Amino acid sequence: MKKTLLAAALLAGFATAGVAQAETSVTLYGILDTGYGYQNYKFDRADADITSKSSGLRDGTFNGSRWGLKGAEDLGDGLRAIFQLEASVNLGSQPGDGQRGFARQSFVGLSSDNWGTFTMGRQYSAGTETFLVPNGVNLGDADKFFGSTGLGEGTRVENSFKYVTPDLSGFKFIAMYGTGDDGGTTVGRNTDGSSFSDRGTRVSVGALYANGPIGVGASYDRQSSSGNDALTSWQINGAYDFEVVKLGLAYGQDRHGKLGWNGSGKGIVGEDMVQAINAADAKLGLNAKGDDFALSNDFKSNNYHVGLSAPVGGGTLYAGWNYSTSNQDDADKWGDAADNASSYHVNYVYPLSKRTSLYTYASYAKNIGYVKDLKGTEAGVGLNHKF
């Protein structure tokens, strides 16, 4: 249960006379998620046999560990001033890798029962908010295959203006415009393989419908970048709850790269293994992929997702499949060093209470990041606590 604090209590030491605080509230909330995990990556082609194994404490498997503040002030006539500040937490290594302030979310705005919500700051794109289907984690997460879903860097848009309509009989529409930033946030891959952070304008629009057992979502994102064609990504997904089982399906396309891609080979297997794979390919006379397994400027992919979840033994069992085809196997790109990517995933979550759950998971991925014969397996158990 979230801890809701009256602003009068939170700001007691700072209050000034004449300020009405009874209609203002601030909520402190968070998620702590950690456990044990095991990963094994293997590249096996011709005379190359490269492996990388690791195990130990894993933080933020089912939910990124975080803490935050959000609040609202009643301005009358159904209008409220709202804000949210959310920061990452790494339970195994404080203060965490590259964490900076309230990097997960930070925005302020106005919300109306009749006119919807308008916010400004760093906030989630429409692709994240409209992906409604049952989904996995880590290697089995759809954001390893789709460019505009999930919670990667490219799905948090800095310097953005966002409008969400009120609920219209189950329908909601989202429109976002980002004015760009001056660096520091990875949002895609350049043709030379490096990540780019100096980005131009961002457009993100989406719609969702949720009513009873039916859920449908769709989004389109366009991100301009200096020296490259604009990255575009769209997806459509739907879910139906049969009570015995919930089925989710999704399809999408990426062009000129992948927005906020969490599925790049280097990001998953690490730089040392990337170098070893490139050296092995060079010996075989295959196209060099570059230090970051570069995506071409005319990159194209078609992405698919199927997810099933069902109540089992007091908890929830999930099984899912992701698949993505691309043109990276063209002769002028990676050629025979590329192949279609896929993953299989299963997890089980058992609630100990409304706020605390135990979980276990396992995944198998093939041709990670479109790199042919690069495979991965993982498994783990953990504890998730919400406050």
Automatic annotation (TrEMBL):
Pfam family, one: Porin_4
The entry's keywords: Cell outer membrane, Ion transport, Membrane, Porin, Signal, Transmembrane, Transmembrane beta strand, Transport
Domain spans labelled Porin: 7-367
GO biological process, one term: monoatomic ion transport
Gene3D superfamilies in UniProt: Porin
UniProt protein name: Porin
Keyword Secreted: no
CDD domains: gram_neg_porins
Principal subcellular localization: membrane
Membrane-protein topology: Multi-pass membrane protein
InterPro entries attached to this UniProt entry: Gram-neg_bact_OMP (IPR050298), Gram_neg_porin_domain (IPR033900), Porin_dom_sf (IPR023614), Porin_Neis (IPR002299)
GO cellular component: cell outer membrane; pore complex
Recorded GO MF terms: porin activity
PANTHER family, per database record: MAJOR OUTER MEMBRANE PROTEIN P.IA (PTHR34501:SF9), PROTEIN YDDL-RELATED (PTHR34501)
Subcellular location: Cell outer membrane
Protein source organism: Castellaniella ginsengisoli
Subunit structure comment from the entry: Homotrimer.
Signal peptide, first to last residue: 1-22
